[in-house]
Amino acid sequence: MNNQHIETVRKWYPRALTSIDTVNRLLDTIERELELKPSQLMHADSMCCDDVNAIQYPPRAMEMLGPFHLGGLNGFPFAGITGMNAFAHHVPEDGAVIIFYAPHIGITKNGTIGEISRIGQSKNSACCGAAKGALSRLIEGKIIEGNISSLDFQMNTIEQIFLHQKERILNAESQSFEATEVMYEAIDERIEVLVKETHYPCKYVLLAGAIFINGDKDMGSFCQYKKFDCLNLETGERRSLMNEYYQ
Ligand SMILES: [Zn+2]
């Protein structure tokens, strides 16, 4: 059954699916292409710690082992090398590691991007709040190059990521949309580095990179994949499963 709000979401993300369909397709593709069942998959996610992501987390993802949470604010993998190594060593020997990573953004019923209506609240609030906060500081020119404090380490890191793409974000038609694209690229780049630095006692590493889209409280959530790669650790071969995923 199709979600009645999917067309609103697809104005921004043309290949978005509901997050329920996303996980169904993910697990079906892995079973079809690699003959692995959910119980053979050690799942890590790198998503924003925002409570809405817990509320709107697709239940079927729990059929995999995990999740091990790599993410902090807006999905950046703040758990770093230590986090990667920890979960990598929990993988079933005949199985695979799968890392799902995504910044998130809200889209309301009427198509407003960067905010949502949350349970028990009459007014909309920012989503991702951290990204919107960093974007406001970018617009106001308040981000100082190199300023990363221990008191607000994760937020300061996002601020620096945005500062380094200042013109691109500020000149965009939708600054919230563009800031999320910038965030995705920063997360993707970091995940690729972390994956190379980590040893996995299994055959496959699966990487699913996406934008996670939160709807209003009664809309559910959505997801648009940007990358779905399978790394064969025995042969060193890397292959995209995007066509198989969308078939
Ligand atoms: Zn967030």
TrEMBL record:
It holds the Pfam family LCIB_C_CA. This is Limiting CO2-inducible protein B/C beta carbonyic anhydrase domain-containing protein. Residues 19-231 form the Limiting CO2-inducible protein B/C beta carbonyic anhydrase domain.
